[in-house]
Design a protein that fits this description.
heterodimer; A: about 60 residues; 2 strands; B: about 140 residues; mainly alpha; 4 helices; about 80% helix; about 0% strand
């Protein structure tokens, strides 16, 4: 799974730590989600999407 | 739950090392200088770990980092599961070693203390191991 989190973070000038604080998780969680090494819960995915003013399906790219 | 190869190596390595360390400690004569040094080193190690954990928690609280999130809870769950298995295997290994290896009998309080410290140490190792992996599902 790939994500557009890094790209959208850059657009809104947010660091991983800023985003982590916004969605109430630890910075490592954001780091591993960005790298595609951790699959977040639907609830967390929704929070991240909301923080980055986008939708879940725009944020996550699934390799079928 | 399927254990990956790296986790298997850590689990079985820790089990083997735990039983060997216990048998080595059991061979130290009671009341000797060596025993006093070992006990002191263990006490210092435990105290240092507790102080470090409290310091780290305080730093994170100051920085506004949440103590736990969904990933850390998953890691805790996974580490706890393996620690539970480890405690069973470790005690079985210890029971076997006490019967098979000709060393002074292990006192019950020593076996309990070693099991307690061993499982706590194993939990930290597993937590660290899973923290470095991204996927903890």
């Amino acid at each position: 799974m790939k994500t557009r989190i890094k790209e959208l973070r850059a657009r809104y000038d947010l660091t991983q730590e800023d985003l982590a604080k916004k969605v109430g998780v630890r910075r490592e969680t954001i780091l591993f989600i960005e790298k595609g090494r951790y699959n977040p819960s639907l609830q967390l995915a929704h929070k991240i999407a909301k923080a980055l003013k986008t939708t879940i399906d725009n944020l996550f790219i699934f390799d079928d | 739950m399927i254990m990956d190869w790296k986790t298997q190596k850590i689990v079985f390595g820790a089990l083997f090392a735990g039983v060997i360390i216990t048998m080595v400690l059991a061979a130290i004569p009671v009341g000797s200088t060596v025993q006093s040094i070992v006990m002191l080193a263990v006490a210092i190690g435990v105290a240092a770990t507790i102080i470090w954990a409290l310091w780290k928690r305080r730093q994170e609280r100051k920085a506004g980092i949440p103590m736990a999130d969904e990933r850390s809870r998953r890691i805790e769950g996974r580490a706890g599961y393996y620690t539970f298995l480890f405690s069973i295997w470790f005690m079985l290994g210890l029971s076997w070693a006490v019967e098979e290896i000709p060393l002074p009998d292990l006192k019950v309080r020593h076996a309990l203390a070693i099991t307690l410290l061993g499982t706590a140490a194993f939990y930290f190792i597993m937590y660290w191991h899973f923290s470095r992996k991204g996927d903890v599902q």
